[in-house]
Amino acid sequence: MLLTTDAVGGVWRYSLDLAAGMVQRPILVVLGPSPSQLQREEAAALGLQLIDTGLPLDWTAPDPAALTTVTAALKQLAAGQGVRSVHLHAPALAGPDRWEPAAVVVAHSCVATWWEAVRSGPLPDDLAWRAEATRVGLHTADAVIAPSKAHADATCRAYGDCVITTVHNGALLAMAGESRGEGDSTGLILTAGRLWDEAKNATALDQVASRLDTPIHAAGPVTGPNGAHVDLANLHLLGPLDARAMRRAYAEASVFASLARYEPFGLSVLEAAQSGLRLVLSDIPTFRELWDGAARFVPLGADPVPALRAALADTGDVTRHAARYTVDKTVAGTLAVHRRLGAYA
After folding, report:
1. Residue 286 in contact with residue 264, Cβ under 8 Å?
2. Distant-in-sequence, close-in-space partners of 251: CB < 8 Å, separation ≥ 6
3. 10, 258 in Cβ contact below 8 A?
4. Model confidence pLDDT, tens digit, residues 175-191
5. Which domains does the chain have, with CATH numbers?
């Protein structure tokens, strides 16, 4: 299998965990910024062949012609490698023509559903053509996967009738994590993700951090590859962390908070729950689907401080709920889609 990925965010973690669960290791093809040395070592430890293309991502390509070039290059690469199936991490990469071999695309996120959740009004031109490329790819692909039913529904609303299979993400990171130590009693709050992305709504946590006696630690970049930047004066910024450092961050915290306005799945939430952290989450459809009964929910725009304080005082355990989302299930669900196409033994 040829598996495309993005070294910038959660797609990298998804891709490695998916690859680790496969008996026949896929070829990992990186678009966008090159993987760090640590990321390369992660891939090598799994025995993966990694191809760093230097090609732009669908959301960093400067124009439709550049994205067309990306699709053509990926098709040529797939043909040259003799793979039996292709697993694309964004529908826009599929292009307007059918693939040979079969192509499965994953709708991890997209500009149209992001815009619906974060902004209002018509899409600007620079996003409109990307949304059109996504619409075309959704109908070109032989099959489409989404990590939650909520995101599948949002995708179909944005792009018209489509058939999408929900395959929930799993995670390996926290399962191999460090044991939780006495630091848990200090009541650290943790958040993680692409802090620069306004959909993550990190500024909402930053605004309440000064009202809490408990520090809020934030893992992730504050500047994105697209030039977006966020200033967070009250959060304790940890910067981007590799897998080992994230395990330590989970082990030192007791509550994980995400007030995201848009989140198709949220791997960091799952990793935190697997690590035993209590959850305080925005009340959006994805989080309700995945974490109802295991988290405290805060309506968007509401004050999260009461929920954070209640979670800090709680002794509940969400690991049993988190155990329903495993990499084995993700791999099985993904391969089932490929097998339906006759593309993977």
Report:
1. yes
2. 177, 178, 179, 180, 181, 183, 275
3. no
4. 444 545 444 445 799 99
5. 2-170+326-340 (3.40.50.2000), 174-322 (3.40.50.2000)
CA atoms within 13 A on the CB side of 49: 9
For residues 294 and 279, the answer to whether their CB atoms sit within 8 Å is yes
**Cα–Cα distance, 190 to 33 (Å, whole number):** 26
Q: In this predicted model, what pLDDT tens digit does every residue of 194-211 receive, in sequence order?
A: 999 999 999 999 999 999
User: Which pLDDT value is given to residue 186?
Assistant: 56
Closest CA to 137 of 79, 86, 84, 83: 86
Could you tell me the pTM of the whole model?
A: 0.93
On whether the CB atoms of residues 91 and 144 are closer than 8 A, the answer is yes
Identify which of 36, 54, 86, 105 has the alpha carbon closest to the alpha carbon of residue 245.
Answer: 36
> Max CA-CA distance within the chain?
58
